[in-house]
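so my prof wants the structure for this chain in the tokens format not the other one, which i didnt know existed until like an hour ago. anyway here's the sequence
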Amino acid sequence: MRNIFRRSPRRSALAIVTLVMLLTGGGGLATAQTLTARDTATKPTVVLVHGAWADAGGFADVETALHVAGYPVLEFANPLRSLSSDSAALGAYLQQRTDGPVILVGHSYGGAVITDAALTDPDVKALVYIDAFVPDAGESLTDLLGRQGPVNPTQLFDVVANPGAPEGDVDLYLKDAVFPVAFANGLPRITQAQLLASQRPIAAAALAEPSTQPAWKSLPSWYVLGTNDQIVSPELQRFMAERAGAKITTVGTGHLAMIARPDVVTATILRADRATR
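here's what i got, hopefully its the right format
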């Protein structure tokens, strides 16, 4: 299937709606209208958790498809300050903003956040990882990235002081030259430029803080693995996904599979729901 993100917005939206109707057994516009109007009380809430250097806008096409399929969707505004505080914030969000079953979807650093937060809410029934970190107890993102080989932060990051941060902590932005070839590779240039301009920094301390209670040890998980990812190598992704016992779907994309192939990500979320009903 061709990359539908490269089409015009109108054609992209039509392609996603068609995908949803196929996956849910629909056959026409009337079915799509029925799905949109259907009571969503029986469906889990899908909570989307973005990672570093991004926001939830990267899930826009996935969110559209889920809404068409009748799923309630929430975007968690990941603070990107520390793994413990970000996970605690997600835990509070789940307790106060959701009611009933939940599917957590985490991209990149967001995978570590859902890993640590999921067990705080007994309503979470499945984890979906998108090009994501899946740490074990006592393991940090720095530890995991070290498995790929030496990392030179000065080549990757622009460092910006944060006056409100703990002493010694700084905000990290991906360098302009790194962003399109590593973080947004495979996407149209205009999309790369828009994502670069809107990137949100992560506090350096968040990368070094270890995970505490990996939810994947007790919850079922699914993993979308981008085979052209230049941020989290496909080899590291597979190691983490297999260790977690996740059901893996590979896709020929870079680090932003939910933008490049929203159809694959949406289908994976729907499979996770069907398998855990």
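also thought this was worth mentioning. The chain has 13 helices and nine strands.
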